[in-house]
Amino acid sequence: MKRGRRSRIRRDLRQEILAFIARWYRQERTYPTVREIQKGLKISSPSVVDYHLRRLEQEDLITRVGRRSRGIRLRRWPDGLAPEEDLIPIPFLGPIAAGEPIPHPDAEPLGWIRIPRPWLADGNGLFALRVQGDSMIDALVGDGDLIIVKPAPEVEDGEMAVVWLTDRHETTLKRVYREGDRVRLQPAHPTMSPLYVPAEAIRIQGKVIQVLRNLNGLPLPVEP
Amino acid sequence: MKRGRRSRIRRDLRQEILAFIARWYRQERTYPTVREIQKGLKISSPSVVDYHLRRLEQEDLITRVGRRSRGIRLRRWPDGLAPEEDLIPIPFLGPIAAGEPIPHPDAEPLGWIRIPRPWLADGNGLFALRVQGDSMIDALVGDGDLIIVKPAPEVEDGEMAVVWLTDRHETTLKRVYREGDRVRLQPAHPTMSPLYVPAEAIRIQGKVIQVLRNLNGLPLPVEP
DNA sequence: ATATTATCCGAACATTTGTTCCATGTCAAG
DNA sequence: CTTGACATGGAACAAATGTTCGGATAATAT
């Protein structure tokens, strides 16, 4: 057995291989062969690749189907390398009614609703709530509507916000305008008159960035 | 050369192969090998498959990448075998304002908006309109909202419909209730009072099955 | 009928690809 | 240092896969 100079052990070769598979899939929409991985990562022998693939399989990160060519399948996507999804899952945190504060954003989601990516500038941190009752009707939000909320302690003047009124123990949706030491809460409905409250009597919970409503009976589906 | 009994020529074998590739891809998310096609369609020799694959390539229905295994790629999906898309394109027909009738459903679309499949019972025949102005505000539909409409000459009692008022030359959204020879048009807003008109003074244009609203400035994107 | 074209068939060849074997090297713990 | 787990290297085998070739048959045009 010949032995040239050994290259040093690559401590994270396993992760490199995983990432390579993911990148390959993203570009080619198919999985690489053992030898394509070998060449792509300049590994000296297919047996090394095979060795790591077995390990990855033990760790449940990939599966291999039989002896078929290109039989590698990713079970989990390495961070940041998941293929671009068209639909972004937003956690659904439950109903929201006038008399109750909104659920904590980190609460265990009751389900997920998937929103087309182009509809959202950034899906991060968003959550969805189902509106109960007509209390937000002057924000043009009716019973059963689904709202997508971005948590935020403050909002720009004029933005539609989820507001918790500390003294009334009420949640509402209003456009918020700061006016000195008080705040004007303006309904979306043009003929409704605004509400003025002291600045310390409200807590901004977040911005409403989207309202979704289905009219034909069934509400927008939330997947478990 | 031996010669057993020949099987009759399969006149549409080429199409069968194409369909087989599509089915295989739908299920496996990868492309079949020549011999997998051969076995799947009970073809006597891989050369027959190869022969048809060349033809399909000439017809620009598939591509083949080099000598790589599983190197077939579909260029067009045979009818009815396209993979299930998560997003259904709905034609966007333009703005709708109080004073104008809605565009004809068959009009040339100005763009497309893609709606998640689970949100729609059936995407067939639907179209999207952008609401202009506040004239439909008592249906909880505001300026800039996008509505998804299913064309229909009639609606069930209580359904939200796009209604053309023939004498006023106005388009509105209302819930429709038949009451003898007149019709009650009920706003979605609970405090607004209904409008009563003679049955012949309205034209039902369709049902509103969805309302979509983006609050953070940008309207829901319509792709050209 | 004859000619022409399209299709099929079996076999074999040439690569590609998955897999195994065994020797050897690397590294950290004891 | 010794040990053991982990990792690498080279080679070869076996199976799979893509491809070619010559000839046959079937369908269609002339």
Walk me through the structure.
- 2 copies of one chain form a homodimer.
- By secondary structure, the first copy, chain A, is of the alpha+beta class.
- Chain A has 2 domains: 13-74, Orthogonal Bundle (Arc Repressor Mutant, subunit A), CATH 1.10.10.10; 87-212, Umud Fragment, subunit A.
- Chain A has 3 helices and 11 strands; from the N terminus they run αααβββββββββββ.
- In chain A, a hairpin with an 8-residue loop joins β9 (182-186) and β10 (195-198).
- The first copy, chain A, is elongated.
- Residues 1-5 of chain A have low confidence and may be disordered.
- The interface between A and B is large, with 37 and 37 residues.
- The structure holds a DNA duplex (30 and 30 nucleotides).
